[in-house]
Amino acid sequence: MKHLQLQLLLLAGSIGAFGTALAGQAPFAADAKDIAISHSDRVYAAEQFSNTVSVTDPADNTLLGVIRLGDPLPGNLSPLYKGQVLVHGLGFSPDGKTLAAVSIGSNSVSFIDTTTNAVKHVTYLGRSPHEAFFTPDGREVWVTVRGEDYVAVLDAQTFQEKTRIQVPAGPGMQIFSPDGRYGYVCSSFNPETVVIEVASHTIVGHVQQESPFCPNIAATPDGRQVWLTLKDIGKTMVFDARPPFAVLKTIDTGPITNHVNFAFTRKGGFAYVTVGGINQIKVFRTDNFQQVATIPVGKLPHGLWPSGDGRRMYVGLENADALTAIDTSNHRVVATVPVGQAPQAVVYVPNAVAQDHATGNPTVLQPLGTATSATQLELFGTGSARVPAPTSVSLFDQGLTQVLQASVTGLEPKQAYVLALSAHPDGSGALQPLAAFKTNPRGSAIVNAVGPIRQLVRGGEGAAQRYLVIAPGTTEQPGAPAQLQSP
User: Structure pTM?
Assistant: First the structure.
């Protein structure tokens, strides 16, 4: 009997040290039961340049197809165009039956039935909404309208806007405390996060951001912490989720710090941060903020979300058109799934469909099509202090043209540069500018351009090959190239 009592005490001590069996995964509370991975679950990714939402079965990491919300270029340039443009943000209802997909370019939220994959309503809002999330009680949907200065509050039944909450200009994203008491709204244009009481829609707290550009914010399932990323300075801040909302820690995470999310397991709580400039996931304990792992992944990791049991973390690779799965027990990549062009937000919805192996409406889910035809390039630094592949470039196929996206690092901070084409691999001679940009305080930037660039950099059929370069200066007066395209 004494031996049995001793075993029970040791077991209780072990559970106390490493967390409870009911660990609860974001966005649910820590006392919510974990939900084992099954064919009823779905992983969704919002893809910005193919204007699709990909649907993946996590049980066998199989792409089921994409929900096509809009057309790629140049089809979406018509004044009579009615589809969605720049599909970017994702949220889902507490019951897992409704997905909210935000399209920045068409100022909309598309509400999708997760069982049928059909769009059941589209709500149009103000300029450039960014993210949409349901309140934990499922009654409201809050949408940050980043191009303006408010959070649009929608009725979760009618999907109509019922009120607005004024916040600092440029609200980047909002997330809720697991108990539904607070909404946390960070800013992409001002160095200030506000805390809003959900019941009254009033601001009850302020948190000073270390920089003005927060793209992502997340609350831990235990209700104790809020983590936010600062993309321009490559840092992640942590503050107390409860009054007075004091800052607890600022972590230097690296250039192009994108999103953060959590896996709560028997070993404790862990924060996963996507860092695009170095193409890594950094993992930190939530109790002492110690970094415990660095996970190399594909190009430009962006959004991420845990499985319903915390055993997997799914990450969208923006410049690789892929979704990758990480085993949280050993921090290793265990699967990679092709998805649409430039995945942004990612969400994992447990029990999204009612029956195992359900495929939804086959007339809605479509194959990837041209979204699989991306060209990958790299640019290297010049001179003796060459940084290995500091800049990755993806050319997303749009028919005869491509959308170019460069994940630029390794340059001087806060300086003007030009992405251009050169007739010579060493960048000599006259340059043909494609895009002008200014680096952030970490010497990084995300740069876009549109054109038949793949045909130019490949050459052939009588056309001389051109080479991508990055040079300091302006489009009128570019300097000597600082980075050159890899041969």
Answer: 0.92
